[in-house]
Amino acid sequence: MNNQKFRNLRDALLEYSIEIYDYVRKNIEKTKFKPIIYNSFVKTEVTKFEYDIEGARPATTSKPVEYIDGNKRVMKFKEDILEFSLYQKILSLLKENYPNENEIKLQSDFIDAIIKVSIQEEKIDNSIIKRKLDIFFKQLNDELISSYAKIELKDLVVLTPTFEFQVNSTILEIKQTSKEDFEKIEYSFAIQRDLFYPPDAILNLTCEVRNPRAIQILIEQVLSIIILYQVGSVRYIRYELSSDSIISTMNPIFPVRVGNRQFIFPTLKKVIITPDNVKELIGFLKRLSNLLPKNFYINEEKKVDYLSIAFLRYKDSIFHGKTDEERIANAIMGLEAIYLRGTDPGELSFKLRSRIAKLLGILSIDKPAKIVSLIKEAYEIRSKYVHGGTIGAKNHKRINEKFGSIKEFSITLLDYLRKSILIAIYLNMKKETIHTLIDESFIDIEKSHELRINLLSKIPDMNGLQTEKSTIIVYDSDKNVISKFEVFTNTNYTEDDFELKLDSIKQRLNISKSALLTIESKK
Question: Which partner from 141, 226, 303, 327 sits 20 to 30 angstroms from 71, CA to CA?
Fold first, then answer.
């Protein structure tokens, strides 16, 4: 870009902005915008507010309010501003400097932004306008712009003070809702929704993006990670987008609000954040943000694989399970996506529960006998459901006696699915390779050891907080280093594990079985 032409454009826009501001402030009181009482707009006042382990419980009253249409207000001023003498000059300068852009739209966007600032700010100086100019040119040059999202969450109960942290280049703030969050002027249907489904937490995101779709994708990514942190029906009621942008697709007159129909489904289980697990949640979000497959949260991602199918079944079970049978069937289908293949021979139910019990048992997630029993019950329920049957009173009673309640049974089953998804993400191995290793581990002690070592060396604790590793160094009798491998510091290698590992090293390096090897651990 020609430097002189750019300076001319910038100077003209600065002069034009000052004219716009002076005009708006001079006429803002003269121009009488008649307030309209809209039945659809109400002001809410909170008469009582409680917040505990069950989340937010506001009691409110509301009444219709006078409302001035902000869009009409801007358009009224804009009609006159388009007649300013500088208008045509700036159109010409924009066309010279940005020939590939629609200069009329760019000019219109810029005017909207300056009018908005002029209405909001009683006193404005050149620094505010220059900042708007800087943002305008950053966008024209396809640079990053600060953008913001306020997400109202249901079923994430925050029993700790507001906490803020950074994941990559995104700043996140999570806080419980307060009385002030419900005292607002809003569409009446939105107020009614908040009374029936009051948000329990607010998640604020701040990031640098080039287009509004990027922050929406980020919201989906963060929420996908949160529902993998614990089994719980955490969902957004709505979110509100805004940015520093000048161009209208990212900076409407009012922030963009996006609603979610998931809030109409009943709660399965709330996720409770206390001072004791804040650090754990932050660690989990940081770790998974770099590992979560994109097709978990980007609908346009065309790659569909067994893991994305399992995650979809997990979400269906959490959010859309209208009956116990439907929820359990979806969970089993999610586990089948991970642990079974279309080419698997033999009795599939037996193969499914055996593989799950072996994998989760090694990581001490549950006792293998309990896993086998629960999966067997769940598989039978799934089979009845797909053929039009229900659990039945007899089976219902047996499940209550063995597992506490049908709800606890479902949550435990979903936790197996959640942890299986995380294990597959952490292992980053082909599905067939994992299956073969599990199956061979039942009959071959060395394969059993190989599976155990793979899990203990690649899987942190299920909530991703523990990510530190120790390096295990193996020496021969002359103190020469012959091998190194890593394990997570939170895993407990037994003496048998080390003996088996040393035997495999000897076999791999063709060292005599009677040779003396020593081990040293370093963080």
Answer: 141
Dihedral, CA atoms, 131, 133, 135, 139, nearest 10 degrees? -170
Kindly report the pTM of this predicted structure: 0.82
- Amino acid at the residue 389: G
Distance (Å, whole) CA 12 – CA 97? 13
Half-sphere exposure of 472 (CA within 13 A, CB side): 20
| Pick from 187, 190, 241: nearest CA to 214 | 241
- Report the alpha-carbon distance of residue 20 to residue 202 in Å, rounded: 36
Contacts of 66 (CB under 8 A, 6+ apart): 35, 36, 37
pLDDT at 418: 96
Q: What is the pLDDT of residues 85-120, one digit of tens each?
A: 888 888 888 887 777 777 777 777 778 778 777 777
Rounded to the nearest angstrom, the gap between the alpha carbon of residue 121 and the centroid of all alpha carbons in its chain is 35
CA distances (Å), origin 187, targets 7, 153, 179, 193: 45, 19, 18, 10
CA contacts within 13 A on the Cβ side of 135 = 24
Burial of 410 (C-beta count, 10 Å sphere; 0-12/13-18/19+): buried
Strand partners, 472: 485, 521
pLDDT tens digits, one per residue of 382-396: 988 888 888 888 888
CA–CA distances in Å: residue 453 to residues 85, 170, 394, 456, 466: 76, 35, 42, 5, 17
Using DSSP's 3-state secondary structure scheme, residue 464 falls into coil
Tell how strand 469-475 and strand 145-154 pair up: unpaired
In the structure encoding, which two tokens stand for residue 190, read together?
A: 């939105």
Parallel/antiparallel/unpaired status of strands 271-273 and 163-167? unpaired
| Residue 83: count of CB within 10 angstroms of its CB | 7
**Residues facing residue 202 across a β-bridge:** 152, 175
- What does the alpha-carbon distance between residue 1 and residue 467 come to, in Å, rounded to a whole number? 48
Helix (H) or strand (E) holding 176: strand 170-176
Q: In 3D, which of 430, 451, 414 has the Cα closest to residue 341?
A: 430
Mention every residue, 6+ apart, whose C-beta is less than 8 A from residue 451.
358, 359, 362, 437, 438, 441
* Residue where the block lists tokens 């086998």: 372
